[in-house]
Amino acid sequence: MPRPRPRAIPAREDDRRLSRPLCRARDPMRAACPARRKAPTVEIVAPDGLSGIREEWERLWRAVPDPSPFLAPAWLLAWADIYAPDRCRAAALWADGKLAGLLPTFVWESALLLAGTGPSDHGGVLIRPGFEKWAGTLVEAAAEAAPEPFERIDLQQLAPGSPLIDCAVPGWSARMEEGDCCPALMLAGRDGMANAPKRMRSNWRYAMRQLDRKGGAVERVAAAEIHETMAALERLHGLRWTEKGEAGMLADPLPSRFLRTVAPALAEAGLLQLHRLRLDGGTIAVLLAMQTEGESCYFLSGFDPDHAGLSPGTILVGGAIAEAARNGATRFDFLRGKEPYKYRWGAKDRSLYRHILTRSC
């Protein structure tokens, strides 16, 4: 028999569990103009409706304290287009005609995952202050609306204060695990490097003087040159990993397509921090980061091994730290991995968490 069409229902303030059916797929034609409601309502935004709520999504993202760029529509819409076309949907909480919460998810290998899982170094849910208690309701709604069976709900890379850490879902048992570590440097001082070891500050200044003597320069990439610079990043990243005898991240065509798609979107949203090191008329190193008001996230870089003596990595990372500080950021996030160079910059481990839920017996 065909499955009955689900519908949206109000969520009562004193009972945040939603009766079944939980919600209905949101019509993309009316997604951007929800009817005003007195009681919060959870709805499911279908894959073809995500772009229709982009403006509301953007406003929600900017209303959340310390928003991660990995939860911004610029990042996740590009991710959905490349990694999960027609498979990413979102549980949306509407209150008084405004988007108050959003949890995009998808099903992969028998797990309900947060949208962005894979390339995203941080995961989470967007919820306006005062609505944090609805996190479990959004997870439950996403689980109920999943288009295919799954065995577990796997919420990865959660920050310590994420509402998803403590959320409970009726009928599901939870366990918490430590996620990947993301070392970060707390920025202080005029150039942001007051907490970096003196040796690294000296190395950066020395490398900058050497570059200047050779006639090189570090440039912030303009919007018109993003495509060209991303191609250079792909080439330089590959050269570096080939020298190590390994295949880099961009050897896979999927991440490569994703980065070429997401970089212009991030630039349009004002989140892209793309730097290149130029010497003798060519690009010898590129660094890609994303910056919000509070932090800069260093995502990827590449440089020509033939110019390793110029310390291009040190030059670009130091430059990105200094720019982040000038723009008001207080944290420089080196993201996943415990590579030694991160700690040479003075980064301290920042633990993230993984919340796994399985059906109760």
From TrEMBL:
Domain BioF2-like acetyltransferase, residue spans: 199-342
InterPro entries, per the entry: Acyl_CoA_acyltransferase, BioF2-like_GNAT_dom
One matching Pfam family: Acetyltransf_6
UniProt superkingdom: Bacteria
Protein name, entry field: BioF2-like acetyltransferase domain-containing protein
Native source organism of the sequence: Sphingomonas oleivorans
Lineage: Bacteria, Pseudomonadati, Pseudomonadota, Alphaproteobacteria, Sphingomonadales
